[in-house]
Amino acid sequence: MRRLGLSLLALACLAGSPAAQTYRIDPDHSKVMFRVRHLVGKVTGRFNKFEGSFDYEPGRPKAWKAWARIEAGSIDTGVEKRDSHLRTADFFDAEKCPALEFKSSKVTGVQGERARLHGDLAIHCVSRPVVLDLELGGVAKDPWGNTRAGATATGSINRKDFGLTWNKTLDAGGLLIGDEVEIMLEIEGIAAK
Q1: Average pLDDT of every residue of the chain
Q2: How far apart are CA 6 and CA 148, in angstroms?
Q3: Which of 38, 61, 175, 186 is the most buried (most CB within 10 A)?
Q4: Rounded to whole angstroms, how far apart are CA atoms 124 and 16?
Q5: Residue 9 and residue 177: Cα distance in Å, rounded?
Q6: 100-122: average pLDDT
Q7: Cα–Cα distance, 90 to 165 (Å, whole number)
Q8: How does pLDDT run across 74-106, given as a tens digit for each residue?
Q9: pLDDT range class, residue 18, cuts 50, 70, 90
C-alpha cells in the first residue's frame, strides 16, 4: 500500500511539472541567412519564407526542441538571375525538393546562455545530422502582452553532403564556389496561447 501511495505521489509530481513553453517563429523578427565563398569573396543570402516552432524553458535543456521548414524557392541573394539558377536542379531543385527542414534531436554543452543544438537538416531532399552553436537571447514581454523568446544559431555545412555539387573550374585553377556554407539564424518566437 505504501509503495502504491509513493507511486501515485511520484506520478502526481510528474504530471504537475511544467512543460516547456512552445514558441512560434515570428518571421517578421527572424532571419534565415547563409554565406558561401564565390571566386575571391563571399556571397550572402537569405530565405524569405519559413515557419517553425521551438520549445524552451530556462534551465531545462532536455525540454528544448526546435522544428523549422524553409521554402527553397524563397532564396534571395539580391541578384535575381543567380537566385533563379539556385532554384534549378543544379542547386536546390525547388520544384522537386520544395523545402529545407530542420528537426532538433538534443541539446548539449549548456554553459550559461550558450549550448549546442543537434538535429537533422534536410536540403535538396537529403537529410544529414548537423550541430549548431546556440546563443540564447532570453525571454521578455513585448508591449502588446506577448511573451517572446529569442536565440541566435550558427554553424557550417558542406554543401556536397546534401548533393549540391554544381561548380565550375576556373582557368587559373580552383573552383568558382566554395563547399563550406556558413549558416546564421536570428530567431524570435511568440509564445503560443
Answers
A1: 90
A2: 38
A3: 61
A4: 42
A5: 61
A6: 97
A7: 8
A8: 999 999 999 999 999 999 999 999 999 999 999
A9: low
Half-sphere exposure of 7 (CA within 13 A, CB side): 4
Domain ranges of the chain: 19-191
Class of domain 19-191: mainly beta
Radius of gyration of the chain (CA): 20
Cell of 64: 528544448
User: Which residue type sits at 78?
Assistant: G
pTM of structure: 0.86
- Asked if 83 contacts 76 with a C-beta cutoff of 8 angstroms, the reply is yes
Q: Within the chain, where are the H helices?
A: 2-16, 80-86
E-strand spans in 19-98? Answer: 21-25, 31-38, 41-47, 50-56, 65-71, 75-76
Residues 6+ apart with CB under 8 A from 95: 87
